[in-house]
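Lab notebook, entry 251. We have the chain sequence and a SMILES string for S-adenosylmethionine, and the next step in the workflow is to get a structural model of the bound complex before anyone spends time on docking refinements. Request logged below.

Task: model protein plus S-adenosylmethionine, output structure tokens.
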Amino acid sequence: MPQLCSSREVDVSAFLADGLNLKAHLGSYLNLSIDAVEQRLPSSTEELADLHPGAFRAEDATAFYEDTVGTGHLLELAAWHLSSADYIADTLRLQGMCARGQVLDFGGGIGTHALSAALLPQVDHVWFVDLNPHNRAFVQQRAEALAISHKLSTHRDLAETAAVRFDTVVCLDVLEHLPDPSAQLLDFHSRMQPGSLALLNWYFFKGDHGQYPFHFDDPGLVEQFFQTLQSRFLEIFHPLLITTRAYQPIG
Ligand SMILES: C[S@@+](CC[C@H](N)C(=O)[O-])C[C@H]1O[C@@H](n2cnc3c(N)ncnc32)[C@H](O)[C@@H]1O
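Result returned:
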């Protein structure tokens, strides 16, 4: 069984200070002053939801994340990570307890987890995968600014990392965006080995006010997801969060 280190050994102070210099990095990537970044953050969730066409067919998902979203997710995720810093910090503590070797951050967004993983001495390389080209370019730029670009590479999809077996898979707040989250779990499973760990969470819900129109919530899709999760992964207890869970592959 994989051994987790203690949460007390994980230092998340750099993230809690300023999100790893997040506003400055955003200003530099978007060519905005810090004041302008701060003005745009509060409306970013609404602006992202407004980009969505409403009814969402599974076959539209790739084009939505790859083209339509543009820089929308940068601001929305930044607003969330800064306003819910204590919650994100706990996911980083969990990552620090589990991550080692070759780390996949699938759907890595603005790179908070990928960059933090690359800063850990027990991590050899972080494979950041995200469909959105702005997210990839932003995270590459952030890695350079933090002097860790030699430990991180960015990729559109898992096929670009075909030869790698991952010791750690991080997939946070992504599975509900995928038209087939069960197939994604099987993909992860096939790229892990005994001793590997996956950190996963999900939110198959469009929100009380429909603020997450891009989340899939079909009951059949959710049932299939849990069938696969419960037949191919065993949960490992950790004391930090009940939303984000750690799994080892089985079968
Ligand atoms: C809600 S964000 C989560 C970002 C990050 N993991 C976090 O916790 O802040 C979802 C991310 O998944 C990415 N994404 C959506 N579908 C994807 C796919 N099929 N392959 C890779 N990335 C995908 C989006 O571009 C977006 O960056």
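Notes for the group: Residues 65, 73, 77, 107-109, 129-132, 135, 172-174, 177-178 surround S-adenosylmethionine (CB under 6 Å). Worth checking against the assay data. The chain has eleven helices and seven strands.
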